[in-house]
Write a structure and sequence with these properties.
This is MIT domain-containing protein. It holds the Pfam family MIT. It is a single chain. The chain is an all-alpha fold and 111 residues long. It has one domain: Methane Monooxygenase Hydroxylase, Chain G, domain 1 (Up-down Bundle), CATH 1.20.58.80. Helices cover 86% and strands 0% of the residues. The longest helix is centred in the N-terminal third of the chain and has 43 residues. The N and C termini lie far apart (82 Å). The C terminus is likely disordered.
Length: 111
C-alpha cells in the first residue's frame, strides 16, 4: 500500500504541475493579447509612444511565457507572432519616435 501511495503521489504531482503550466501558458497569452490590443488601439489613435510601450510589454510577456509553455506547436506560433510584433514596434520607433528621442534630450548632445 505504501508503494502505491508514492506512485499515485508522483502521478498527482505531475498532473498538478501540468495543470499549473497550462494555466501559466494561458495566462501569458491572455495578458500579452491585452497588451497587443492596447498597442493596436494606440496606433489607431496615433499615440505612437503608448503603442510602442504596449508592443514592448506584450513582447516581453510572450518571450517570458513561451519558455514555460509545454506545447511545442504553440511555442512555435508564439515565436512567429512575437517576431511580427517586434517588427511592428521597430517600425513605429523608426517612423514616429526616433527623431523625437533626440529632440527631448538636447542637453546630452555634444556641440
Amino acid at each position: 500500500m505504501l508503494v502505491q501511495r508514492k506512485g499515485s503521489e508522483k502521478g498527482r504531482r505531475r498532473t498538478e504541475l501540468c495543470a499549473a503550466y497550462m494555466l501559466i501558458s494561458r495566462d501569458y497569452l491572455v495578458e500579452a493579447a491585452k497588451q497587443i490590443h492596447m498597442a493596436l488601439d494606440s496606433e489607431v489613435n496615433e499615440d505612437y509612444e503608448a503603442a510602442f510601450s504596449y508592443y514592448k510589454n506584450g513582447v516581453d510577456l510572450l518571450l517570458n511565457g513561451v519558455q514555460l509553455d509545454p506545447n511545442k506547436e504553440r511555442r512555435e506560433a508564439v515565436k512567429r507572432k512575437t517576431t511580427q510584433y517586434l517588427k511592428r514596434a521597430e517600425e513605429i520607433f523608426i517612423t514616429h519616435l526616433q527623431d523625437n528621442l533626440g529632440k527631448g534630450s538636447s542637453h546630452l548632445t555634444c556641440h
